[in-house]
Amino acid sequence: MWQSTKNVYHAVSAFLAAFCYGFPGKKLKIIGITGTDGKTTTTHLIHHILNSAHKKVSLISSVYAQIAGVKYDTGFHVTSPNEWQVQKFLRQSLDSGDEYIVLEVTSHALDQHRMDWIDFEIGVLTNITHEHLDYHKSYANYVSTKEKLLNQARIGIVNCDDDSFSFLEANSKENQRITYGIKNNADITPEKFHFTSPLPGEYNLYNSLAAICACLQVGVSAEEIRQSLKTFKGIKGRFEKIAADVDFDIIIDFAHTPHAFEEVLPTAKKNTQGKLIHVFGSAALRDQSKRQLMGAISARFADLIVLTEEDYRTEDVNEIIDQIAKGCFAEGAKEYATNEYKLALKSTSPVFFRVPDRKSAIEFATQKLAHKDDTIILTGKAHEKSLCRGVIEYPWSEHLAVKNALKRS
Question: Which domains does the chain have, with CATH numbers?
């Protein structure tokens, strides 16, 4: 009942916002990107390609909004801003003479009507995996909500290798659908469209294919796309290797779902000569069923794991860690106290520690665990600028926490 009331509020608010700003979402060519994982990178990839092809384009993503070359903060823990912010940005984009805007879209924003009164030229769906089931209640509901973007768009672009594809195919509307993939017979594949990219991992191959599909549909030439993909260096907090004067690597990534772990951890492991050290937690008041899965996947790929906080809000951080630890144990990981780290380093099995304070966890990983040729990967916070404890948002920077930890090492 509460959720329905909230959705009605947003639906009315979305109309009022669109009306007040002159319905800019009906006058721009808007490319929307949704999906559980990969939507931020895909959003920025499309923007980079269009910009490199000299198109007048702006973007709104979970990292920032860039309207007419000016960057704006989109807030704490935000992927899709509220309807008033979105309409304001669209109006600024239109007034600046833009033809296109690339918009990252969440399932929450679609379900709550925050994207109403926006005509999407193209809707891109990256994948639909285990996430947000606390909100959507079932995978089928989650898929149906994501599909709203495809059905609102003139052209829908979908990943035919994803588990959601059979459902989407069975329920597709009359609009045009274009597919991309690696394993199945898609419209766009690496064999049909040859390209190179500095981005690591198979998951970024999928992100690139999605961007290729979208940009081909708006008239960017194949050669322009290929050249742009070569020059895209990635974005903040997405498998970002931190420059530091140490003999081990540090990577910051936003991965916070089981599927994302299955993508980024093997990629990090493949590029690590020594041990892979994984520092992570799980956000509170979200889908609890993913926590044990994340612990198991981490133990499958990481050698040393530091379980810590990630926006524990009004839950007990130690109970969240307990739930993650069950997955670690299930994969044969052994638990050690932090003062036993020297003994733990000799273990041939995966090892995990509990360090509830994230700052202390990063210090422990950098100062005690990491040695030559190791890799530390910090997941879950990335670009976010706050850490929620209780009901208070405390200022937080993953990058600054790493910098300060290295100063003391």
Answer: 2-231 (3.40.1190.10), 240-408 (3.90.190.20)
